[in-house]
Prior knowledge:
The structure holds two protein chains of two kinds.
Chain A: E1 8-17, E2 24-34, E3 39-43, H1 50-57, E4 65-70, E5 73-74, H2 80-90, E6 91-94, H3 106-116, H4 121-134, H5 150-162, E7 168-172, H6 180-195, E8 199-203, E9 215-220, E10 223-229, H7 237-245, H8 251-264, H9 273-295
Parallel strand pairs in A: 3-8, 3-9, 6-7, 7-8
Antiparallel strand pairs in A: 1-2, 1-4, 4-5, 9-10
Helix pairs in contact in A: 3-4, 3-5, 4-5, 5-6, 7-8
Chain B: H1 2-15, H2 17-54, E1 59-64, H3 75-84, H4 91-99, E2 103-112, E3 116-118, E4 121-123, E5 126-130, H5 134-137, E6 142-145, E7 158-161, H6 163-170, E8 179-182, E9 185-193, E10 209-213, H7 214-219, E11 224-233, H8 239-253, E12 260-264, H9 265-308, H10 310-318, H11 323-359, H12 368-394, H13 398-403
Parallel strand pairs in B: 5-10, 7-9
Antiparallel strand pairs in B: 1-11, 1-12, 2-5, 2-11, 3-4, 3-8, 6-9, 7-10, 8-9
Amino acid sequence: MAEQRPIISIEDVSKVYGFGDATTVALDEVSLDINKGEFIAVMGPSGSGKTTLMNIIGMLDRPSHGIYKLNGRDVSRQKRNKQAKTRRDNIGYIFQSFNLLPRLTALENVALPLAYKRVPQTRRLKAAARALDQVGLSDKEYNLPTQLSGGQLQRVAIARALVNGPSIIIADEPTGNLDSTSARVVMELLSEIHKLGNTVLMVTHNPSLTRYADRILYMLDGSIVYDEASAVGEMPTRVQRAVQALRTSDDDEKLASVSAMMETMPEPKSSDDEDKGKKKKRRKSARKKRGKKAKK
Amino acid sequence: MWNEYRKMAFTSIRGAKFRSALTMFGIIIGVSSVVTIVSLGEGVKQQVTTQAGEISDSLVVIRPGKEQEASAFSLDVLRTYVDNNTGSLSEKDWQDTLEVDNVSSSVPVGIVSGIATFEDAEYNGNIIASTARLPRLLNQNIEFGEYFTDSGSTKKKVAVIGRDVAEQLFGENVPIGKSLQIRGEKFIVQGVFEQQDSGTFAAININNSIMIPYESAKDIGGNIQLLQIYVEAEDATQVDAVSDDVRETLIKNHAGQEDFTILEREEALEATNAVFYQLTVFTAGVAFISFIVGGIGIMNIMFATVSERTREIGIRKAIGATNSQILGQFVMESALLSILGGFFGVLLAFVANAIIRVTTDLQPVTTWQVVAIAAGLSVVTGIVSGILPAAKAAAKDPIASLRTDA
């Protein structure tokens, strides 16, 4: 695995918002290689830059600095229309809030990415029907999103992400809005997709979900502070410890458990005092962001 | 891909039917009014030119009053006109034109006041006093019976009637031999005119006219207003000379005043064309304004739609729509709104024309050119007013769009 060329290669990628004193660093010179077929869980508190990283990998956003190579080709400087095509052909998105178009049926929603690829209608609907069958919803083809449960909606969204045959699936907290039963169905699906050889990147707040992943990234203040490989089906020891410490299913406490986990981790080595000062600043801004999100 | 845009556009237009209908309203009104006005103009123009074409080159028409712009729209126009210039042509004028050199005939067209009755029925049509030559001048054939002649029957109380008169007053097609009453005198129906398809240059609708000999009309008393006098030259080359001589004669009769109008065929056509040119310019102005207003309405709604559907745009971009595809989708939506508006506008215009045809004497003619221009204008309006909102949609940042609640 180590010999093969990484499917995703990020070198010193930063994302900065604002100017001057109001500058917020969302990503701070992150470097990351991801190989084909990995299932990566990205964890970290709100405002740590997980979503920004996902958006850059998913090409919804451009890095302020640094290079992003997809399949060995630098895509971070592509024109917008070209980027959209690269995204369409290589990346399937799954969102926390499903993001299906309310006026289209499940089948039409799933077929939509193919429409943008100019696949003829009959072929596209057939492919969409296959994808829906793959997620076990072949009997809901003509239901509108309002006629489906949360778990079913997320499965439709997964089918939509799969229909293009993308090599990379990006799931931003896919189970965040789901009850535990639906969440398990969704995770099993993602796991299956992974077994079929796809690369999966998943942002999650739920430590127990990391057992599906074979590599775990912890992020804090725009940096990857920990990068750990773990066997599928097992929770890394550090995560386990955190979960045991706070054995609850409440969402807020899940977040707390992540923070607890973070506390147990060693601070990434900082060379001098100046750097520490920087870190503090960043933490402040991260806290600010957290406050904003809470208001929302 | 345009096919896809069309389907998407239909989906979202269907999703907001009432709003879409309101948005189209501007274009509907614009298109329908333009098509209706142009059809009306075209109809009248065709009637006028056909009639003018039928009238021979050697004819000079005298009308009472000095007209600024010679017009020949309808009897109603002329009637109000005559009311204001009562008596400016007299029987003497008519008789004198017969004396002018190179005149082969002169035919008066006089409106006789009164209402025709048959048994208990009344008919409020035109009672026209004229001479035997009139049907020939107007190229009007007699379908049943015959027209009265000048010799012998001039004093007879006979009438030749139009088809409407026959059907409505007598309730049959050929009431020959029956008699109607005008001002207490009986007139025997001697002939029925052929159905006349369009209004005439002479502004007389034959279908609802009752023609009686001029001399008989004088006998029953009442007022005969001379609507016009047709003077026929012996041949077409003399028409200018005849019209000059007639003018001179009449000015003498009218104590030096020219309170009448002399029209030659060419002049009449020119005058008509001038009127229609003005009408066309006016219509173009109305069209221009209504399309601008309609276009602004569409643009307004498209801007609202784009902000409202920010999240949809974000989703579409996240699953692979390019900026140009988003642009295409929204331009298509706006164009489709406008095209649908144009379509319904044309339909509305056809309905309006049908109503006009049934309720009035006018015969609107809708040419395919008018429909094509209206359709083309709606397409252009839709595209032009859709471009800005669509560009706004295409430029939206996908991440920010996905975060909005809309």
